[in-house]
Amino acid sequence: MSGANGPNDAEGIPFRVLLRMEIHPGMEHEFEQTWHRVGSAIVTHPANLGHWLSRGAEDKSVYYVVSDWVDEARFREFEKSEAHVKHREQLHPYRSKGSMTTMRVIYGMTGAASR
Predict the structure, then answer these.
(1) I need a surface site. Which of 11, 34, 55, 94 has the fewest CB within 10 A?
(2) CATH 3.90.79.10 fits 15-106, yes or no
């Protein structure tokens, strides 16, 4: 994301999904490997802009997934797809809790170090 897109310029502004997952203690490494292996179900979707897995700094069993989409409608289409159901089924055994937050990006700025 770059440029000075703002609240009145919806064109090119991603729809973002943030997942928070608590993983059963001791299963973190297996979860990470499985997430990476099945991630192609998301990044190969033509409306997906990117997909990232991060682990909490304080609690090593808490993970965050950020996924950007061209728009909400295309994300919702994927969310109901067979590919997404299969993806979730493979990750479900590792999860003890989870939540999802969706949002629209208002502004995006690229940091100097990424140039």
Answers:
(1) 11
(2) no
